[in-house]
Amino acid sequence: MLALLKQILKSARERGQTVDGAVFEIRPPKHEERDPRFLTWAEVEELGSWCSEGRLVVFAALSGMREVELFALRAESVDLEGGAVVVDSSAYKGLASRTKTRSGRRRVYLSSVAKQTLREQLLARRPSPVDVVFPSPSGRIWQKDNFMARVFRPAVRRAGLEGLTFHDLRHTCASLMIAAGANPLEVAAQLGHKDARLVLHRYGHLYPGASARAAQRLDAHYLGSCCGGGVG
Q: Global pTM?
């Protein structure tokens, strides 16, 4: 809206009308970033139980993949033996396109529960002419608006998790990894972030006592080196 107003005023000035130049220096207001919301594992399971696409929801919380990446995930990109999936495409208006990441692809590693969820989905999925792992009822790639209106929001209401967004499942994956002992670099790699500083910015409060634990590990390493390096 501000950009449109500036364009109108610029055109008016070009037509000879008097316009205070200071108006063009006005910057748009900064929107406060919404605090990430994290689900417990019990809440993830509860949400999945109320959802017609429950395995998609559960797998999102376990993998940290973006909604559009999940919609476009192809069966050929799944490596259950290697315990990973290759993310190299993204869904836009029911079609596959390039991913959000600059590299164009990344490898997402899976826990045993994530692998089992994916294995069950591959066995039970609808026939899909585009061979995606999580097809829509028509077998095609989900369109975001349809998925949110018909699947996700109704499940959120039934599970009593009002206000939850699909992106919160990505935050949930990060919080579950941190609770399991993952460091910021590991979380960043899983989520497809190039910079671990973003992880620290968003999830740093989930690392209470990290400095103290690091000091304890340093002591253990130093003492172990000293003991192992002594003359017998």
A: 0.76
